[in-house]
Amino acid sequence: MKRWMKLSVCATLLLSVTLISGCGGEVQPLDISDFQRIAIAPFSTEEESAGMERRFPLDLSTRLSLVKKDKEWIYDQSDTLNPIGSQLAAQNLTPKDIFLDPALAAKVGKAANADIIIVGHIKNPKLDENYDSNPLYDMSAQAGISGTTKFVLVYQWATLNIQVQAVDTKSGSVIWDNGGFIGYTRYIREFNTQDPARHTSRIAPDQLKADLRKHMLSQIGHQLAPDKIKERPVPEILMKPGRKLVRSGGQPILW
């Protein structure tokens, strides 16, 4: 988890409000009805998100090609089948170059015989967790409040920011920009206060990253093909207690 920096609890609560209310307003989907050949380039990354530049665009391209079969999708599928990567190498460019300069993106897209080229930037991947020691009680148990019905919560979450743009290869202009989107997956697990596993049992970092990638694929996929790919809630709670837990005094817990 060296590259996955931690969020403070306060920052996370603030982030939750920001995400729920949206980032700069609702993003209008990209209208691709007038374009037939669509290229998706390797995404630009920062040091902490290095390694994602090919995997995410590949997964996104594969998903879009399955739901939008009437379009021709041009993307890097392997080290040998890499129409965009080879053009970047031939022109001595990087994914960051074409993300920052639409004219360069258009040049690469045109060389790949695409009508538009989609470029992106991935940054700020974060994993964190918080242990809530304030006790809750399982009111679904018939034995009444006791040590066996007393629980605490462990929270884990993952966030990632992706900005995606579409460039017209003829005009060299940006025709769509999602403005940067923060994906947020969250997990809430309950442990009996007498259970020592609460201090050691965690969802593995690889699973957190995989779930976050699926979440982001749906979010960006929805922005590009809203009629075919459903969006996900933000934050997306992937795990929560199935018990009826309440605070002391009978206050119910709302997820």
Q: At CATH's second level, what is the architecture?
A: 3-Layer(aba) Sandwich
CATH superfamily: ABC-type transport auxiliary lipoprotein component
- Please indicate the percent range of residues in DSSP E strands (runs of 2 or more): 25-35%
The Rg value, from CA coordinates, equals: 22 Å
CATH topology: Rossmann fold
Task: Kindly state the percentage of residues in helix.
Answer: 25-40%
Secondary structure category: alpha/beta
Number of structural units classed as domains: 1
Largest β sheet strand count, sense and barrel closure: 9 strands, mixed
Order of helices and strands: HEEHEHHHEEEEHEE
> What is the CATH C level class, in words?
Alpha Beta
Q: Tally the helices.
A: 6
Number of strands: 9
- Global morphology: elongated
Give the overall pLDDT as a whole number.
85
Uncertain runs with pLDDT below 50, 5 residues or more? 1-24
- Measured between the Cα atoms of the first and last residue, the distance is 27 Å
